[in-house]
Structure formats: structure tokens, C-alpha cells
Amino acid sequence: MHSFTTVTGAAAPLPAANVDTDVIMPKQFLKGIDRAGLDRGAFHDLRFAPDGSPRPDFVLNRPGWEETRFLVVGPNFGCGSSREHAVWGLLQLGIRAIIGTTFAGIFADNAANNGLLLVSLDPGAVSALLARAADPEGNRLTVDLPGETILAEDGTRHAFEIPPSRKDALVRGLDAIGQTLDRAAEIRAFEARHHAARPWLAR
Amino acid sequence: MPPRTLYDKLIDSHTVARLDDRAGPGAEILLYVDRTVLNEYTSPQAFSGLREAGRRVWRPEAALGVVDHVNPTAPDRGAAMPDEGGARQVRYFGENCRDFGIELLDVLHPLQGIEHVVAPELGFVLPGMVVAAGDSHTTTYGALGALGFGIGTSDIEHYLATQTLRYRRMRTMRVTLDGALPAGVTAKDAVMALIRRIGASGATGYAVEFAGSGVAALSVEARMTICNMAVEGGARGVVMAPDAAVFDYLADKPRAPKGDAREAAIRHWSGLRSDADAVFDREIRIDAAEIEPLVTWGISPDQAAPVGARVPDPDAEPDADRRRDLARALAYMGLTPGTALESVRIQRAFIGSCTNARLSDLREAASVLRGRRVAQGVRGMVVPGSSSVRRAAEAEGLDRVFTEAGFEWRQSGCSLCLAMNDDVLAPGERCASSTNRNFEGRQGAGGRTHLMSPAMVAAAAVAGHLTDVRRLAREI
Ligand code: SF4
After folding, report:
1. Count of alpha carbons within 13 Å of B14, Cβ hemisphere only?
2. Is A132 within a domain?
3. Do B158 and B260 lie in a common domain?
4. Residue A1 has what pLDDT?
5. Which of B27, B248, B457, B459 has the fewest Cβ atoms within 10 angstroms?
């Protein structure tokens, strides 16, 4: 998993509501058995015309957003299918954090499991950052996870909050499975009690 | 102990350990998960992760593998996949299930079908369970009194290795459906009405319990439709208190307990309900009598209207962001503001998906089609939710009703619900669809999806345009 401390780069605006994971990672990129090649798939139908050429009007193809590290997005980003390919593709595209008001639940968990930082702010702050991200001259931000702040080049700051355990996992890039397996004895004891009380489960 | 919701009871009874010092919504716990269902397209990287780390599957018998997303549904069933990518996924899935000791329902297995249709048919999901699986529509299992929710591939791997998830407690929402649905109005309309009311993110962060006389009156299959599609309102977990209808449903299911074990289980299951004075973080009440047949006109499941309404006008929308999203939706859908929805012509009609391809759904659609023909220029497809549904429908002659009406009678799978196989809309094609997502490109790049109940799909196929199924009923 990617670890995240402080990242600086350009932000791009994607203000539409309900951007779903079918749009973030269309189905033709779901046929793999590994995580390879998903950078091409991220926002594929928005980024590329049917002939494969970049669409000049899509923000990530425009001058000033070549090195985009952050997306500033509309409400309910990542809704729909559980496909984690959406998160893998965004990371492969170089996106490290996404800033918006609300995120869909499975997408948020997938992001956390891969070190993609999601920052929830109030609508006013998101509007301000959307305006900033839309300006190719002023779209650079620094996202400081330990300090829980977003800093713009002109010194404007937006504070954010993230649950301590999630922050700790992101900063350290922890292996969640390894941590859980440290509790294997506890799980086994729970399982024995659970099944003893519900014998029809223990087939 | 203070009064608790059913969700709280299920979470409490599955908590192995607390992972932080918080309580209530947002608290992180180690959650024991009773079952999972795996498919070929969200599981490969999870198995690769296990292989790389040299880890085993904690409880192989608690997982069931089903091939459903990429397989063809042509009537003449073979083992061949439509493309090399799909073939590789199915091959690797087979190897993984074999190497890790997991039961697999492969394409040619007589019980194959869409995972959310197959698991209840088998009795693989039982009341009181927590079921997490690599597909968002795992919420379906709420109808059986289980807590079902979708997870991504990293969490599938975590589940397989540990039988647990690191889980954050949700807030709770109760949706009470009062009264009976009017004739011609189905469970699909009820859940679409909910999503239309609360929006596509209205239940984000919530576990939803459905309750009320309107739910109690529904069959278990109709309840599955509601729980299934609730995820389109953002619900991350869904539950319904199991009742006698659920216990009856389970009576003949192969994996459900029998005899004394069943009696003991029913005693336990009967206690699975929210306490009378339990407090929910949010309450919604819906009057079933007021629900009409709905169709979507946009690219998000909350962009729906009664079929008698007109396409909305973006200029009438005061909020600038919403105006922009609305205009974009209409441009994609090729619809002009003010057009009567009933005048919108279709080229495709699809009856299928884990929302609406169970036997009761096929019966409803067939009752509309009996003695009628699909309109000229419309291609209709029926893709049963499982091979068992297909056989049961054939046993009562529904296949002939569909084929005599001009529908294709196909094999089971996800098919045109997400078009990962060779069932795809052509750009610009418009489809009346009994599925759950009308996202841009969901049924094929440039394809236009209108969501509705299976009976409404059948009616649209006959009329050649969107129409109110109650209109056809009056003609009988
Ligand atoms: S039928 Fe559609 S929604 Fe259901 S599991 Fe398959 S692709 Fe997903």
C-alpha cells in the first residue's frame, strides 16, 4: 500500500455529482487478473475519443494539469460498483488525494486500503478549491496528512479531519491483513463461541 | 441494555474486538463475517495477494465461487468465453477455487447464475449472518434477515485470510413502507421511489432497515429486489427482520438447516428484530398507496419520474450545479425537456439482473406479454437470474410466452446489466431495462438505459416506447 505524508502537485476540478466507478474505470478494463495497465483505463471514455486520441476538452488533457496529483470532486464521488480497479487506476494515473464533500462507502474503503487519501470538507471549502483547481496558474496544492491541512500557494489553508486509525494506517502504509492475523487466536476463540451458539452455521 | 436496532444487534454479535476507543457510528471494530460469495472479476487480485504472501483461506467452506459477470448468455450454452480476457479470468478463478478449496459454480454447472440469485436459492445465506462480498449488490441478503454489504478486492483478500474485516460502524436509517402497493406497482417501483426521494447518496454512511406493513406483505423475492437496489441510494448495508415468510422460503433450500436444527434456528432467528423503542439516526416513511410505476430518464438511478411525467427542464432548476448535471444527463440520454416520457421510443428491452430476474419477476413480465407481440424494431431479451430460475420458468411454460412474444430466451448471467460479456447496446440504442444502474455507458458505450420494473419493460417492448403497464392491463 502507498504511504501518504505530504504531497504537492496540481489539482483538477471534476464538479459533477455522482461520478460512478463505471465512469472512473469502464468495464473493458476489468478483464485483468492483475492490476496492470489501469492508468489507461482511468476516466477512459472522458479522456479519449473513440479513435483513442486524447479529448482536448477534458481537464486532465489540458495544459496546466499534466502533473495532476489531486482531484476536487462533486458529491457522492465513487458511487456504484465495488470495483477496486477504480482506485488502482487513479493511483496509477498519479492521483494521490481526492477532495470533496461526500464519497461513496465502498469506494472510500477501497481508497483507504490502497493509500489513496480522501478528504471530506464542507461544501463552501470544496467550492473554493474547485475554483482554484480550475485555474491552470493557481491549481497547485500541498496536502499535509500528519498536519491535516491543505495549503494553497497563496497561503490559504483548509483544515480537515480523518479518523486517527485511518490516518495512522495511511501514514505508515500498514499491511492490514498482517495486523489482523496477529489476532488469529482471538478470532479463533470468537469463532468457536459463535458457532457453538449457532450450530447450523458450522457446516 | 439500551434498546438496539437489528443492525446494532448483528454488529454486536459479530464483533471480535474493538479497534479504537470509540462507540457508535464511526467506531472501528474487527467484524466476524459468516459468508462470502466470490466472482471471477473482483476476486483475482485478492487470490494473487494470498499466493504472494503464502497465506491460506481461513474457512474455505464459508465461501462460494460463482462465474456470472463475463460469461455469454447465448441459448446454446458452451464453456467458451466471449474474449480472451474473460477466458483468462474464468480459468484463474477455477484454479483459485480449486487450490484454496472453495466450491465453484462454473458456467456449465447446473446451479450457475448471478451470485445474488444463486446464494439465496442454495440457502447459503441465512438469517442473522453477516455476509460481505466483492459486489455492491450483496445488500440483497438483507431480505433474508442477514446483514449484507459489498467490499472491494483488498477487503476480499482480508476476509479470505482472516474471516474478518476491519469495519466502521454505520449510522442507522429505517425506511418504513406503510400499506399495500397498488395494482401494477411493484417492489422495484417502491425502491426506485425511495432513491428518487433521498437521492443517490441519501443513504451513504447508513445501514438501512426496511420495515412496515408494506414490506411484510411482500414475497421474499420482492424484498430481495428492494434490498438489492437500496445500494443505489448509497446504503452500505441493508437488513429486514426475518419473519415466517423467510422461514418458509428457507424450508426447502438445500443448505438451510432441517429438522431439529431448523427448529433451533427459527427460535434464534425469531429474535432478530429491532427493539420496539430503538432509535434510528434517520427515519423515512413511504406511503405505498402513493407509489406509481417509475422510469428513469437520466444517468443516475435517482433521476426517475412517474411514467406519466415529462422530461424535466434544466432551466427550471435554480441550483447551478444541479442544472449543469441535469443538462449533461439529458444530452447523454438524447432527451428534450418537456417530452412526455411515454413518447420515448426504445430499440431494446432487457429483463434480467440480480434485481429482477427471479421466477416471480419473470412471471410478472410474462403475464404482460401473454398473447402479445414485441413491437416492430424492438429486440427483447430475457436472461434468467440463474439456471434454476430458467428451469423453473420452463417447467411452467414461461419460456414459450416470452419466445412467442418475440423475446429471446437466454442462459443466466449478468449479461446486459453491465455488458462485460457480448450482450451490449450499440451507441445511441435505447433500452427499457429491469436492471439497477443507468450510468453512462453501463450497458455499452453510448447506450441509453431506462430503469423500470420487469412488467414495465414488457409493456414498453409491446408498445415500442415507454408506457404505463396499467394501460395494458386495462386493455385485457
Ligand atoms: S446482475 Fe448486474 S448488478 Fe447484479 S451482480 Fe451482475 S452486474 Fe452486478
Report:
1. 26
2. yes
3. yes
4. 67
5. B248
